[in-house]
Amino acid sequence: MKTAIISLLVSSLLLTAGCYTNRATKWEYQMVHTIGGINERTDQGWTVDSFVVKPDGSHDYLLKKPKP
Questions:
Q1: Structure confidence at residue 29 (pLDDT)
Q2: Of 25, 31, 37, 58, which residue is the least packed, with the fewest Cβ within 10 Å?
Q3: What is the C-alpha to C-alpha distance for residues 41 and 54, in angstroms, rounded to an integer?
């Protein structure tokens, strides 16, 4: 029984160790002020990360894409 538990622990550690990668995604960011600007950049791989509605009713959009 003791060897079965040890075998289970060792095998689970080996399986999870292979799943870990130490590479974090690095991002590029760009600010856009119009929907047309968003449409142009989505073809280049940009996605909307967040946006802000300003008091005057205009919008600012923060775009991001992974760095090559």
A1: 97
A2: 25
A3: 22
Question: Could you tell me the residue ranges of all domains in the chain?
Answer: 23-68
Q: Which two tokens stand for residue 32?
A: 């856009």
DSSP state of 34: S
Q: Is residue 38 pLDDT above 70, yes or no?
A: yes
pTM of the model: 0.62
Taking the C-alpha atoms of residue 68 and residue 52, their distance in angstroms, rounded to an integer, is 27
Task: For residue 63, count other CB atoms closer than 10 A to its CB.
Answer: 22
Please report, for residues 1, 4, 5, the alpha-carbon distance to residue 13 in angstroms, rounded to integers and kept in the order given.
Answer: 19, 14, 12
